[in-house]
Design the sequence.
């Protein structure tokens, strides 16, 4: 498979009164053509900041990309100017935001908000763009698109607005679509419809998707691969099967354990991860997750864990994979699901010192 | 929308009624007023006068006549100058005041918005600080001090503009500037904060994520939304321009309605004070009303909700 | 250090250390401390505080400094320019402008404070009760307020001054008779926002009485916007006082207020500019000080900026 996006050791911080918030602390991942990568993690783990930096949408200042590269089709986005970014945003990469209630301009007709993209990136004359906007609305499943294009966002329901956002995002056939918690603000049935729509459209257009969420249930439904993020770092990446059936990082276990699953009727086992995420102005020494980790080792409080490779596609940042580490049992609810995957290596391979 | 207009209209009429009624009864309480004849006049003259002003009627009849009079655009006579009615004063003075007011309004809005937008676009850089220093000064210097200052510097010292009176367009520059200064400052600040607020909204991020240029984002998405609070400020703004003109006209010797108002206050010409107050109230409330309607036209959300959001 | 050289003890299982997560997380500044911190960082606002402190100091002690009285005429020394003798010069009756300026500061600041306090009292009661009780009472109270709000402020003030005569008392009355409406609306808005929040509901289920809930929870939390509105009422009052004086509706002589001094100084501008200059400058400085303090407070108290 061909790599579309390659993020290497990305570091981003925000200057605030209280000091620099190190929101993203060395994140690396790839996105291949046509696949869906899910990024999961608790609130504040830096998912949105990572996502927005891919389009250079983080406010600078206070935000700053301190280091790393974002290679999109081999070209580094970090060094691009605002003018150059205009040809990438909306055309090559586009984005859907979490809250459909606020992400559309309240005083501009919906049709015009879609047409803008077409006029900008496909040099369409106004009239054609309007026509195409109707088609797009139809495509994202909005009934009576001819009347709907002339309406304002407040005349649409939340789910409808998110469909409009999808129409805007896909108008110029981008190669990468970033969806930042696109369904979090919607109720469950609408959520499912939006996910179906995104899957359907992805099939038609072969767009790559980065799907951000803190809901692992959604992940299983849409993603090919998953990256688990904690406190500005990726702690585990792997295919959906690897993350669900052979997770190795205690944080991933925690997330899986706290996920209400349909298979298990036994809800008593649901367990939230104790404590709160660390303050990123002053990230703790060693593993940021250690204080909340029931499997933490003495060394976790001192030294950043290295990365181990479990299979061709599966990477984990944890001391538990060190040969000297004690063998620990994941929580019952996670263990029940665990199975041996054929792709795993005999032994975890140390790939990178911290 | 109709319901919205209806509600606004109702409140406007209520406010108007309250102020006209209050004026009417307040004026009857005022010391040395025509309605409590303290003056030593020969009885037959007094009877004549009373008949002329309708004072021989009971108060409720007078009140009713007054309301009917105003409803039929008759603001009553002058108590001091028998030959003159308030309508005469309005007809001669208001066009002048209106010209001055509109000129000031245009200056205030155009420069205010310009300063505010500039400040917001260069947030925390020197154009921001510069604009805001101008704005804070504009707010701190009351219009009558601004007027005197302008008059002193540009008319008396530099002799660029005429000192006073109302004869040519050149005569209008200084008073209009003086009148515009503090509303301009308010608009600048309002525009700035509303721009900053709008710029932090998600839909601006959406607009950027479409690949629109900075200028397109600003002009097509930010400014229009940022103008909403500015538009709703235009009502109070016209009020402050109209009342502000009272002093400005006085300082520049402009024969507008404001000057007549001041003269009537100084002469304690109660019927005129009453009439001009009623007229001013009508103008002001109509301005506010029109602005509300205009707001409803600009903000598409109002049509459905029937009411301004956040109210 | 190579990973293989790590000792066995390093891999001892430790488990959850929740105290660590709490220790690490940001020391939680109380809201007011946090706001104070931001306010102090605002240079313009601090300049305003400094100016205001100076003005208040001079309002208290200024009138005794020059040794002249604010009301004694001295026809032998009319319209003198500023000198060692008369620091700010003298006026058309030979009175010391320096003393009169600080006498005027007292009046202006007094009027401003009184108007702000009265607005505050009525506004908080009206808006607080309307917002807290809700329902029909709220509807009636706020519609009344709406009607009053529609009445142009300066016109009311002018009318009342004409009718009631010119004194400090009537001036304050005239300014507050519709002035409180703004405060009432703001308080009501805040109360509506806060009243359904959990801690208020909680104390209500615990049986707290209405006045108690208002005093303990609602008012303190609505304090920010109230404070800002108050800070901005004061310069409006000072401005209005001066404005009335220009219309000949100011305080009666020999009382010195900045407004009367400025309007008396106006006709003499060409020849004796100091008579206008000093009161005018201090009007501007005071309004400036209150405005920047108000802005500073608003920025400091805006919870949206709180991180
Ligand atoms: N403009 C900003 N200024 C200061 N700090 C910021 C800014 N934007 C984000 N941060 C900080 O960066 C960190 C990561 O935020 P981010 O929004 O990426 O979290 P997230 O994982 O998307 O969480 P959520 O699930 O709540 O959306 C947070 O600690 C946040 O406070
Ligand atoms: Mg987010």
Sequence:
């Amino acid at each position: 498979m061909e790599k579309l996006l390659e993020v290497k050791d990305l570091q981003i911080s925000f200057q605030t009164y209280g000091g620099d918030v190190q929101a993203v602390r060395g994140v690396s991942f790839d996105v291949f053509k046509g696949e869906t990568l899910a990024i999961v993690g608790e609130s504040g783990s830096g998912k949105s900041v990572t996502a927005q930096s891919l389009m250079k949408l983080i406010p600078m200042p206070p935000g700053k990309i301190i280091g790393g590269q974002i290679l999109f089709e081999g070209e580094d986005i970090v060094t691009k100017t605002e003018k150059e970014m205009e040809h990438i945003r909306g055309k090559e990469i586009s984005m859907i935001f979490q809250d459909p209630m606020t992400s559309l301009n309240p005083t501009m007709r919906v049709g015009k908000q879609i047409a803008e993209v077409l006029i900008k990136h496909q040099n369409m004359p106004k009239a054609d763009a309007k026509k195409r906007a109707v088609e797009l609305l139809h495509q994202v499943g909005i009934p009576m698109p001819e009347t709907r294009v002339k309406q304002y966002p407040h005349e649409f329901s939340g789910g409808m607005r998110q469909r409009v956002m999808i129409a805007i995002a896909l108008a110029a056939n981008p190669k990468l679509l970033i969806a930042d918690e696109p369904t979090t603000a919607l109720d469950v049935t609408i959520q499912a419809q939006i996910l179906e729509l995104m899957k359907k459209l992805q099939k038609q257009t072969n767009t790559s998707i980065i799907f951000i969420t803190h809901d692992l249930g959604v992940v299983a439904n849409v993603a090919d691969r998953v990256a688990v993020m904690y406190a500005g770092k990726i702690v585990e990446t792997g295919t959906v099967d690897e993350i669900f059936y052979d997770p190795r990082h205690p944080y991933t276990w925690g997330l899986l354990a706290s996920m209400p699953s349909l298979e298990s009727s036994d809800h008593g086992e649901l367990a939230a991860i104790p404590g709160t995420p660390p303050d990123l102005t002053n990230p703790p020494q060693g593993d940021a997750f250690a204080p909340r980790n029931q499997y933490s080792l003495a060394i976790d409080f001192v030294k950043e864990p290295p990365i181990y490779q479990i299979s061709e596609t599966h990477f984990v940042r944890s001391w538990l994979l060190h040969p000297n580490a004690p063998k620990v049992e994941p929580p019952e609810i996670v263990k029940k699901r665990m199975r041996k995957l054929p792709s795993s290596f005999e032994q975890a391979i140390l790939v990178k010192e911290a | 929308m109709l319901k919205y207009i209806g509600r606004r209209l109702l409140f406007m009429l209520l406010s108007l009624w309250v102020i006209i009624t209050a004026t009417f009864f307040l004026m009857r309480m005022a010391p040395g007023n025509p309605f409590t004849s303290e003056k030593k006049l020969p009885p037959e003259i007094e009877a004549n006068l009373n008949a002329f002003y309708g004072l021989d009627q009971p108060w409720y009849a007078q009140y009713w006549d007054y309301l009917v009079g105003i409803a039929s655009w008759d603001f009553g006579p002058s108590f001091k100058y028998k030959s003159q009615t308030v309508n005469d004063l309005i007809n001669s003075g208001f066009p002048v005041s209106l010209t001055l007011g509109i000129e000031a309004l245009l200056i205030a809005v155009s420069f205010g918005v310009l300063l505010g937008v500039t400040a917001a676009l260069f947030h925390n850089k020197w154009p921001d600080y510069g604009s805001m220093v101008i704005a804070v000064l504009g707010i701190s210097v009351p219009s009558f001090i601004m007027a005197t200052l302008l008059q002193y510097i540009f008319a008396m010292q530099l002799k660029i503009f005429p000192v006073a009176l109302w004869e040519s367009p050149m005569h209008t520059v200084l008073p209009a500037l003086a009148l515009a200064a503090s509303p301009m400052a308010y608009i600048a600040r309002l525009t700035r904060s509303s721009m900053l607020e709008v710029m932090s909204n998600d839909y601006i991020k959406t607009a950027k994520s479409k690949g629109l240029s900075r200028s397109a984002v600003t002009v097509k998405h930010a400014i229009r939304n940022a103008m909403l609070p500015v538009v709703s400020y235009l009502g109070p703004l016209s009020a402050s321009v109209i009342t502000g003109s009272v002093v400005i006209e006085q300082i520049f010797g402009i024969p507008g309605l404001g000057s007549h108002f001041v003269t009537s206050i100084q002469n304690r010409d109660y019927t005129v004070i009453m009439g001009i107050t009623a007229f001013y109230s009508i103008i002001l409330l109509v301005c506010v009303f029109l602005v509300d309607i205009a707001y409803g036209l600009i903000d598409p959300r109002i049509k459905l909700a029937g009411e301004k959001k956040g109210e | 250090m190579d990973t293989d050289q790590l000792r066995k003890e390093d891999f001892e299982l430790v488990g959850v250390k929740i105290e660590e997560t709490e220790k690490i997380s940001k020391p939680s500044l109380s809201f007011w401390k946090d706001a104070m911190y931001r306010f102090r960082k605002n240079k313009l606002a601090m300049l305003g505080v400094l100016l205001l402190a100076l003005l208040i100091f001079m309002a208290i002690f200024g009138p005794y400094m020059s040794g002249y009285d604010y009301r004694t005429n001295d026809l032998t020394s009319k319209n003198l320019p500023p000198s060692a003798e008369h620091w700010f010069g003298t006026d058309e009756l030979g009175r010391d402008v320096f003393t009169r300026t600080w006498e005027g500061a007292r009046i202006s600041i007094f009027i401003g404070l009184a108007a702000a306090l009265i607005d505050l009292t009525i506004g908080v009661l009206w808006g607080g009760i309307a917002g807290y009780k809700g329902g029909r009472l709220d509807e009636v109270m706020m519609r009344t307020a709406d009607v009053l709000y529609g009445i142009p402020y300066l016109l009311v003030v002018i009318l009342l001054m004409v009718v009631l005569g010119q004194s400090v008392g009537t001036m304050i009355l005239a300014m507050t008779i519709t002035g409180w409406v703004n405060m009432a609306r703001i308080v009501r808005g805040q109360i509506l926002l806060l009243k359904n929040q959990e801690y208020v509901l909680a104390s209500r289920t615990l049986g707290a009485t209405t006045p108690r809930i208002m005093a303990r929870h609602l008012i303190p939390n609505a304090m920010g916007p109230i404070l800002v509105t108050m800070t901005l009422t004061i310069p409006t009052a000072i401005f209005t006082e001066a404005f009335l004086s220009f219309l000949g509706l100011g305080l009666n002589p020999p009382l010195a207020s900045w407004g009367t001094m400025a309007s008396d100084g106006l006709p003499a501008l060409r020849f004796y500019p100091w008579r206008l200059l000093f009161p005018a400058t201090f009007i501007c400085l005071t309004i400036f000080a209150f405005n920047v303090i108000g802005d500073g407070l608003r920025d400091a108290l805006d919870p949206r900026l709180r991180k």
